[in-house]
Structure formats: structure tokens, C-alpha cells
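Lab notebook page, bench 4
Experiment: in silico fold of construct C2
Operator: M.H.
Input chain length: 257 residues
Purpose: comparison with the prior construct
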Amino acid sequence: MDPITPFGRKWEYRHSMWMNWLFGPFLLTGFISFIYIGIRANKKKWLFYGAIYFILMAQYFFYFSSYDINSTTFDISIMLVLGGWVFAWVHAFQARREYLRILAVRIMNDPLQPTPPYRVKTHYPFPTEEQPLTNIKNVKKVKAELPVADKKVPFTFNVNKASLQEIASHPYIGNILARQIVQIRERVGAFQSLEHLIEETNMKPHIIAKAKPYITFGNVKKQAPTSAEPSNDEEQNKPNSSPSRKKESISGRIVDY
């Protein structure tokens, strides 16, 4: 059985001695257990249950001498006190968990209280010194968060010069889009602007909104025209030889036979 508090089971057994009052027959001393933890934990509900158990005990012992053993009143009285005694044991084990946790939180949050030097792990949700709670029922499991060192921090990169690994390591890009960017960059040479990048890669709007501040293009040079595609000046300066050739083919002496 796992410990309820970080102080271990020995500490819990030592602070559960109040349950020994339940061994008193017919709730003769059982009500003292709930009055004790109600005062220690400042819980009115346990004081209320202690008063109820006292009434169940008192009605039996107060009228015990005047009861007729064969009467229905005696049967009801003994059923009430026996049922209350059994229920008090079940109730005490349920209250024990809450009482020990309240007591442990009070010790951990009070600098004047001597804290046990040992600590053990517990599977129950338990607050730390930085989370003081007045009501132990408000304790909830805290979702585990990744350490700050494990979280990827966005960084600025040149989309025309960065490697595949560098682009893929960006938290807003990912591996698939990084491969697509590198493949298109090898085909077009370089991205001229953000609009050019979006047009070629078909980036989704939410990715654009996140990654836009971190993408740079550097000094992009326009591609020089290739030899296969002559410029307009060359086309204008190029002599138009086709008409002269036609004239040469047409010119000549016509001979009639």
C-alpha cells in the first residue's frame, strides 16, 4: 500500500493513534476519535459526526437499564448502536486519508513546525510548499509540462541558404515542408520574396502567419538570361537575313524554252 503523504507510513501510523478510540465497545469511546481530528484539523464536519456517534452511544447506555430485552425498542436501540459502531470504523478509514494530508500540508507550509527529514514518493496528488492549500479536496493532478530546454525556440533563417536540417528544425516548418522548400529552391534557383515562396510551395495560412517573421531572403540576385533565350536587344540588333535570302532565291534570269 502506497503512503498517503511524503513523510512515509511510519509517520502516518504515528499520527493515526486516534483510531484506537474506536475499539471501545458500542461506540463507548469511538466518538472521541472524530472529535479529536475535528479539533486538530479544524473541521466542523468531523465534530458533527462525533456528536452523532455520541448520541447513538448515549441512547443505548442511558436507557439500557430500563429496556425490556424482548421489546422492539431494545432491538432498534441495539441495531442503531451496532450499525453506528461498524459505520464509524469505515468512516474513520476514509477520514484518516484526508486528515493525514491536511496535517502534512500544515507542517510543510509552517516554518515553525519541525519537518521530518525523510521524504518518500507518493502516487497520490499532493501539493508542494509552493502550493499551499486550505482544503485538501482541491488538490488536483498537475499536467506534466516539458522543460524549457526541451521546447524548440523559433529562430530566423535565410530560406535561400539554409540547409535541409536547419529548415526542418524550425518549429513552424517541419520535415515535409522543409524538403519541399529545398526541392523547389534547387529548381528555381532562389526565392525572390515571400510571395514567391508562398506561390511555389502553397504554404498553409496558419504556417505563413507563424513563420513569416523568421524567414529572410538575403541578397537575392536576378537570374541572367540564358543563351537559349536571347534578350530583346540581341533580337533587335540581329540582322534580318530571311528577306534577303528570299530575294536571292527569287532573283535570276528567266529563260524561255
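Observations: Residues 157-216 form one domain. Confidence is low (pLDDT under 50) at residues 128-146, 223-231, 241-251, 253-257.
Next step: discuss at group meeting.
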